[in-house]
Amino acid sequence: MEIRSQNTDSTRYATLPLYSAQEPRLAERRTWKRETSSSNVDHSADSMFDADGPIGRTTEARGLGLTDVDAASSRYQPLPNPPAPSFTALDGTSSSRMPNKYASPPLLQGQQSSPLRTETTHSIDAPTHSGHSSLSHLGPPTPNFFTSQSELLHPSNKAENACPSDGDVLTSPWSWHSVPILLLALYATVFSAIFLTIAIMKPRWGERIGTHGSLTFANASLMSAIFAKTIELSFVTVLVTLLGQVLTRRAFAKTDPQKGISIAEMNMRTWIMQPGNLIVNWKEFRYANSIIGALVLLTALSAIWYTTASEALVSPKLKFGPVADRMLSGRVSTVYANAMYLGETCERPIQLALDEASATTCLQITYAGASFNHFSHYLRNWENAIGAGNASLGGTSYSQRPPPVAVMYDNTTIFGQWITPSSENITTDSRRHGRLVQNVTMAMPHAGIFNAVREPRNHIIQPDDLQGAGEYRVQASVPAPAMNVLCVGLTSEEMAPMIVNVTDPTNYVPNRTAVDDIFGWNPDAEVPETPWFPKLPIQYNTIVHIPPVWGPPAVSLLATPAEGASTSDHVLCAIRSTQYRDCTTWYNVAQSGGLLKVHCDDDPDNTIPYQSSQPDAPIGVWEANWKDIGGEWIRSLALNNGVSDANASSARLVTQFIPDWSENTDTILPSNRPTIAESLAVLAGGTALLSSLNAPFDHMWNYTDTILEEPVYQTFRARYSYKDYASGGTQNWQGIFYVILAVVFLFNLATLCYLSWNFIRQGYVTDYTEPQNLFALAINSPPSTALAGACGAGPSRKAMSKKWNVDIARTDTDVDGFSYEPQAIGSRHPHFFIRCREEELSPMISQSHPVTPVSRGLKYRRHRPPTINDAVYGAESPLIEQYQRLASSTTRNFKLTKLFPSAMKTNSTA
Prior knowledge:
Keywords: Membrane, Transmembrane, Transmembrane helix. This protein has 25 helices and 26 strands. By secondary structure, the chain is α+β, with helices and mostly antiparallel strands.
């Protein structure tokens, strides 16, 4: 490395930083001058160094790539006597007078060659060690400074070390800095508001999300996660920008002694961008214990948990909604208990053209299969109840006994209910009539609900619509099909009037019997209901009677128990059907199957009984049509095989369920087995379900034909709750996440308002909390005793809370013995640096009134300050006005006028 200097008696040429041949030259013109000094008579004349254009012939040196400056010596020209030193105040005005406090600033004392050098001159090969170094010549030197060891590495001229800004501090609100931030703030605000609204409203997405909906669950969850993540990222980005804008404006402000920013506050951006610092550097919290610190901590925690909060409260998930009243519709094709309709719709390969009895054959197979299946389930439930040691199975109440059970379509379990519409009681009834009397009524759910809930017009989401995860519950206010079985014990003598061989049923007149009052028979009626039998069945056998004409509603069964049984000789049972009005049908559906139940009378689940919808619905009207169904049903069970003493298994089992009875003992329900009436009711329960399938949802038939060519829709009252994809929490404790969503939205809204107002009013301020901007500012700032010892291990805890301000030094006036020729396209721009408020301010800054005055006309002349592009040759740098606005943005102008009347006048004139 070769360093050259040339000295004469009248002129001393000092080298400036030189440039390699490969590097472009500075596109500016620098002229510097130095006053003569009595202390340095060898350098009595100043010279001018023109860096504009090539400097003659240059030779490239090795090492640092410096160029030979000998060729440039011919261009040095002496300057005339320089003007007196000038002082630059905050307002950017120049004055030849300096404040008393700085009457003899260090920058003007001693040797003029370097304001921060001692009198002793060292050669390059003779290093010195004089303590700490100050690489910036802005303001007074700090204590313990030292002289650089190399004129090249540490040049001693402000002309060489000053950093005139080449960009605006306040940029346009429509710049590439501002517009993306405002768009992100708008996006974060709008969508965080949408997410908060969704979380509060908890909308149900219904058919919009599902297998056949607009979105599948997977896509809906993915979209929710994407939006939540983008909101979080936008929130973090905008929040960091907001923090940088607030802190930077505080750093510029000079109106309040408490203003300025600390290192701890500058470090708050890492809380948001690197949440792990909240754990690693938790001790730094005490030095950021301001309102801003608390808000930043709150928003940092909100940003951490925002995705989790949106997943808990916004992302769709399967859950049940509230029970809602609504009207449902179902198809109706026939009247209740229409045997002809059931025969026509019975699925079979043999049609009527091949066998005219194919319909009844199909029905009997259907009845037999369903009845024995239901009865098998019922007996199994009895076995389980006995094995569980249920002591309440006996007595007089049916409520504790196993309920009737049935199965439909192999995946729907049906439970009926034992009811006592007339307060039936086996003990009381048997005692009153002096014989065994058991009156059992079994209500079953309306089977038409099964098809109604699947009607497309009802828009009920089925499990398949939600990838098999759907579920719903329907409560229907419809009449319940019911089976009534009345069994009465008789002796062989009392059965004699009914044992006849009738050849012509149309002319037969039945005899009076001992049980006419119990069954309600009237032998003198136009169509008598009294049954007859060809013979008495032997033990373990049964014989049935099916009325040969339409009218009587019941089919009858005569059973003979085992010999020696402690009961009546024979038991006669009448089986009939009706529609009960005081019931509510419940239907629960899931992917695994359905559960169809009925709740009647005083059952707490009897929420909307049919009589509440139809108060005029009758009770106790037996359905005459059911007799045709009951006839085929009872034949299919081989319960009439006792005519030939066939000993059918079904008859044997039924006769074993006859309750015990004696004249001296009260008759009660057995606790170890069902009764014959209960068994027959369960066996006949399937016919009640088939009778209500495609039947009306009320007790009336308003059509002429009993079978409609085209089904019609009939509405009924219902309550409906369903499981679908909905937003909102699934657990009560998840409500805490509402705080996260609310905080994010409120901060997004506040950030949008703040940035919009400040960007439009002044513009985007260079964010000095960003590492690259802070580095450029700090490296061009003078050293500070506030950070003594921090160069190795970082700032101490005490230094974390010290306040710092951004100041400027003007470079277009002769403040320290140097003058700068204005740029070709505009004025010389100021130098920005940072300084601790506790330290002595630069002579360019008034310590007593560190406020940059701004005139009323200047402040309100234009909405936004001018930019560098607006610079005029020879005029004041636009950065001065930008700095003034930031430095005095919170101060009233009339106060500034009183404090700095002369400065205000000068500034207004400029």
